[in-house]
Design goal:
The structure is a single chain. With about 80 residues, the protein is mainly β. It is built from one helix and five strands; from the N terminus they run ββαβββ. Strand 3 and strand 4 form a beta hairpin.
Length: about 80
Amino acid sequence: MMKIEIHLFASLAKYLPENAKNKTCIIEISDHSVISDLIKKMTLPDHAIKLIFLNGIHASRTSVLKNGDRVGIFPPVGGG
Protein backbone atom coordinates (compact mmCIF):
# COMPACT_ATOMS: atom_id res chain seq x y z
CA MET A 1 0.00 0.00 0.00
CA MET A 2 1.04 3.56 -0.72
CA LYS A 3 0.05 6.83 0.92
CA ILE A 4 -0.87 9.60 -1.49
CA GLU A 5 -1.60 13.19 -0.48
CA ILE A 6 -4.57 14.49 -2.43
CA HIS A 7 -5.78 18.06 -2.79
CA LEU A 8 -9.26 18.65 -4.22
CA PHE A 9 -10.04 22.21 -5.23
CA ALA A 10 -13.21 24.30 -5.54
CA SER A 11 -16.36 22.21 -6.11
CA LEU A 12 -14.42 18.92 -5.78
CA ALA A 13 -13.60 19.57 -2.11
CA LYS A 14 -16.98 18.10 -1.11
CA TYR A 15 -15.65 14.63 -2.04
CA LEU A 16 -12.96 14.72 0.66
CA PRO A 17 -13.45 12.62 3.79
CA GLU A 18 -14.72 14.38 6.91
CA ASN A 19 -11.27 14.33 8.53
CA ALA A 20 -9.70 16.33 5.67
CA LYS A 21 -7.98 19.60 6.54
CA ASN A 22 -7.39 22.51 4.17
CA LYS A 23 -8.92 20.58 1.25
CA THR A 24 -6.23 17.91 1.69
CA CYS A 25 -6.16 14.30 2.87
CA ILE A 26 -3.97 11.21 2.75
CA ILE A 27 -5.38 8.23 0.84
CA GLU A 28 -4.00 4.70 0.97
CA ILE A 29 -4.00 2.97 -2.39
CA SER A 30 -2.51 -0.22 -3.83
CA ASP A 31 1.04 -0.27 -5.17
CA HIS A 32 1.36 0.29 -8.94
CA SER A 33 -1.83 2.41 -9.03
CA VAL A 34 -2.39 5.21 -11.52
CA ILE A 35 -4.25 8.48 -11.01
CA SER A 36 -7.47 7.06 -12.51
CA ASP A 37 -7.44 4.43 -9.72
CA LEU A 38 -7.24 7.23 -7.17
CA ILE A 39 -10.12 9.06 -8.88
CA LYS A 40 -12.26 5.90 -8.70
CA LYS A 41 -11.37 5.31 -5.05
CA MET A 42 -12.41 8.88 -4.21
CA THR A 43 -15.64 8.44 -6.28
CA LEU A 44 -14.95 11.65 -8.18
CA PRO A 45 -17.22 12.19 -11.20
CA ASP A 46 -15.20 12.12 -14.44
CA HIS A 47 -17.03 15.11 -15.91
CA ALA A 48 -16.04 17.26 -12.91
CA ILE A 49 -12.27 16.90 -13.45
CA LYS A 50 -10.41 19.32 -15.72
CA LEU A 51 -6.77 19.49 -14.52
CA ILE A 52 -4.58 17.03 -12.65
CA PHE A 53 -1.18 17.79 -11.15
CA LEU A 54 1.28 15.22 -9.80
CA ASN A 55 3.93 16.73 -7.53
CA GLY A 56 3.25 20.13 -9.07
CA ILE A 57 3.53 18.99 -12.71
CA HIS A 58 0.62 18.57 -15.13
CA ALA A 59 -0.29 14.86 -15.26
CA SER A 60 -2.74 12.50 -16.94
CA ARG A 61 -5.07 9.88 -15.54
CA THR A 62 -2.57 7.20 -16.60
CA SER A 63 0.34 8.66 -14.60
CA VAL A 64 1.80 6.06 -12.23
CA LEU A 65 1.76 6.94 -8.53
CA LYS A 66 4.58 6.42 -6.03
CA ASN A 67 4.39 6.41 -2.25
CA GLY A 68 4.38 9.97 -0.93
CA ASP A 69 3.20 11.60 -4.17
CA ARG A 70 1.02 14.72 -4.04
CA VAL A 71 -1.95 14.91 -6.42
CA GLY A 72 -3.99 18.05 -7.07
CA ILE A 73 -7.27 17.84 -8.95
CA PHE A 74 -9.16 20.87 -10.27
CA PRO A 75 -12.67 21.15 -11.74
CA PRO A 76 -13.47 23.20 -14.84
CA VAL A 77 -13.47 26.89 -14.01
CA GLY A 78 -16.59 28.87 -14.70
CA GLY A 79 -17.24 32.55 -14.56
CA GLY A 80 -17.75 35.52 -16.71
